Amino acid sequence: MSSQDQMAPPLTQKGGEGSSNARPALILAVLAMASFLGQLDVWITNVGLPDIGQGVGSTSLSDLSWVLNGYAIVFAALLVPAGRLADRFGRKNGFLLGMAVFVAASLGAALATDVWVLVVFRAFQAVGAALLTPASLGLVLTSAPADKVERYVKIWFTAGSLSGVCGPIFGGLLVQASWRWLFLVNIPFGLLAIALAARLVSNAKHEQDARIPDLLGGVLLIVMVGALALGIVKAPDWGWSDSRVVTSLAVAVVGLVAFLFRSARHRVPVVDLSLFRNRIFASANLAGMLQLASFAALLLSSILWMQSHWHYSAIKTGCASLPGPIGFALAATASETLQRRFRIPAGVIAAVGSAIASVGILLFVFLLHDDPNYLSGVLPCWLLFGFGAGLALPTVVSSATVGLRPEEAATGSAIVTMSTQIGSVVGISILVAMLGTASGGAALETYRHAWLVAMALMAFAGLVSLGVSQQPKAVAVR
């Protein structure tokens, strides 16, 4: 979820740097596959979390949540620095290095026998994904024909965004063999991407800004978000007044202040704070963060509910979640038509989509029961939520760089992706804190409270989304 439909070509192709004798569509296919693969690992482990717990000998949801959050935190924090490193040393080199790290870490994760060893390898996976994702976007921009840049970016973005909603079904299928296949599956596709990219893709560099990015700022961001997640996730076990929780939250606050201070002063910050003076960009970041927080909490909670209360298998749970991807894909296509053909403002589309998704979440509260009732419960909820999210999320992200200078667009899109990943961490952490020590076996009433929080986050995202629409241009009076 890291690109945008309305991105003006942020790079100028020069001297064959971005050209290739290979067919651009084939290069796009390779890069889109890599984007899907890197972002799929944010979501694919949701449905396999119980099986992973059994495999690594952990039943604590607060510990297992780090299998999800550890990846998302590192991925979010390193996206912008990794993108700038790729600009400096070459996007092809960044892509190949990132994919190699991702494949190697996937093997390590598949062989892990301890939950914290798995979390470490998940973090290394995220390092690789953070390198390959912005590099692949840059390669799309420099390899696409001039008249097809926006279409190629849209395809690349859609490939990445669909990973979030396809994760459960793929995860459910792979877990049937072993939870280790959640990570092993990355290896053949990753090696294929490396081989094809090495042969087909030219090494493009961005000449405008070759300075070393603020890596310490990236570390501060990891510490800040990690401490916040730790405090929230562990509070039910330790107690909200426990010194460890208080210390974690204090570190998060201090880390935020230090991160903002450093970002304001560093020549090449992780987050260029001046970009947030643009109302559309600021609104898109906040709306995307809220939407992903809601989506992440809803996805994991529904999976835990079906597996722990209805005793669904992983594959059955994945299939039960399939209506969400279908609704998402249909609505994402419709949102583009609404903007282009009917000139409906992006903010209005995103707000309406968020409202529809909020209703879908509310239906979870009223329709789900302790006894399995998929057709009258989960199915209509996921259809409505998926359609609403498909209208809202791609519209918000694709509008994020409207009004930014062309040279700011790539960095701006990476910041939006960072915001959405931080949102997923916050959403999962809130859910784990609400379910508490009972983990997935919490009572229905506890789940209903969690769904109400997810609904509130999505509804708030709808209000914020209204700021994504461009202001009408003033008409000069003669």
From TrEMBL:
Residues 27-473 form the Major facilitator superfamily (MFS) profile domain. It is found in: Cell membrane. GO terms for cellular component: plasma membrane. It is a multi-pass membrane protein. Gene3D superfamilies: MFS general substrate transporter like domains, Multidrug resistance protein D. The lineage of its organism: Bacteria, Bacillati, Actinomycetota, Actinomycetes, Kitasatosporales. The keyword Transmembrane helix applies. It holds the Pfam family MFS_1. Keywords: Antibiotic resistance, Membrane, Transmembrane, Transmembrane helix. GO terms for molecular function: transmembrane transporter activity. The keyword Methyltransferase does not apply. One of its GO terms (biological process) is response to antibiotic. The chain crosses the membrane at residues 25-44, 64-83, 95-117, 123-143, 155-175, 181-202, 214-233, 245-261, 282-306, 312-332, 344-368, 374-404, 450-468. This is MFS transporter.
